[in-house]
TrEMBL record:
The keyword Cell wall biogenesis/degradation does not apply. It holds the Pfam family DUF2053. InterPro entries: TMEM147 (IPR019164). It comes from the Eukaryota. One of its GO terms (cellular component) is plasma membrane. This is BOS complex subunit TMEM147. Its main location: membrane. Keywords: Cell membrane, Endoplasmic reticulum, Membrane, Transmembrane, Transmembrane helix. It is a multi-pass membrane protein. The chain crosses the membrane at residues 25-42, 62-81, 93-110, 164-183, 190-212, 224-242. It is found in: Cell membrane; Endoplasmic reticulum membrane. Belongs to the TMEM147 family.
Length: 250
């Protein structure tokens, strides 16, 4: 009798473990779609797919990987390893300076790479899209694979997906501003300081969010909300600047 009673219990336990495995896989795929899906949607829903700019995006992604390698070498050389997670102004300032290597990488991707015969408008979008996708793969794929498949549900990986969406907007906005700085010659002189100021703010956004998280003690959800809001504001300003510079001068 004891064996007969324990067999259904084992079956229920196996079914419960199987259900938990399915739920963790479901959670992982949800987070992965939220993280990487907008990149594919942006490519297919815009004229980028019609003009076959995938090669430009791949080249920009490779430039991002090389730029990240240079940044890692600089960070390992000049930054001190801290035992605690407190905010160090000197270290964060040095990180911000090293972070401008991304701007140099974007400059190379926009001006030095050979592209198909595409317009300036499509070029900066393809470069920004490849840049953002490479960043998401490099910084978020491994944490998703390891953490989102865990048995304990957490909102952190959903928030990471939302953060990846904000980073996509930031990357395209920075590429648009870089396109105006380096490729657009006949832009209004009154807009030049605004373009450079906006590009500087977007380039230092990782240091800004680091200060909010470690200096002011903001929770991750609040930081992601700030990133989403500022990314929309940045996108609107970049779009207005780009549209203004596209108008024929009178």
């Amino acid at each position: 009798m004891c064996l007969d009673l324990s067999l259904p219990e084992r079956e229920r336990g196996e079914r419960e473990r199987e259900r938990e495995r399915r739920m963790t896989v479901f959670h992982f795929f949800n987070c992965a779609i939220l993280t990487f899906g907008p990149h594919a949607v942006y490519y297919s829903a815009t004229p980028l797919s019609e003009y076959d700019t995938l090669g430009t995006s791949i080249k920009a992604a490779l430039v991002y990987l090389g730029t990240t390698l240079v940044k890692l070498v600089c960070l390992a050389t000049f930054l001190q390893v801290s035992e605690n997670d407190t905010f160090n102004p000197y270290q964060e300032l040095l990180k911000a300076v090293i972070g401008f290597i991304d701007v140099a990488g974007l400059y190379f991707a926009l001006t030095q790479l050979t592209h198909r015969n595409i317009s300036q408008n499509h070029k900066f979008q393809a470069v920004g899209l490849g840049w953002a996708f490479a960043d998401s793969v490099l910084h978020r794929l491994a944490p998703l694979w390891v953490g989102a498949r865990g048995l304990e549900f957490t909102w952190d990986y959903i928030l990471q997906g939302l953060e990846a969406n904000a980073n996509l907007v930031f990357s395209i906005s920075l590429a648009a501003l870089g396109s105006l700085m380096w490729l657009r010659k006949n832009k209004p002189k009154a807009l030049i300081p605004i373009i450079y100021a906006c590009a500087g703010i977007v380039a230092t956004m990782p240091s800004i969010t680091s200060y909010l998280r470690r200096g002011l003690g903001w929770h991750f959800s609040k930081v992601v909300g700030f990133e989403l809001f500022t990314s929309l504001v940045t996108a609107f300003i970049s779009w207005q600047l780009f549209a203004t510079c596209q108008r024929p001068s009178t």
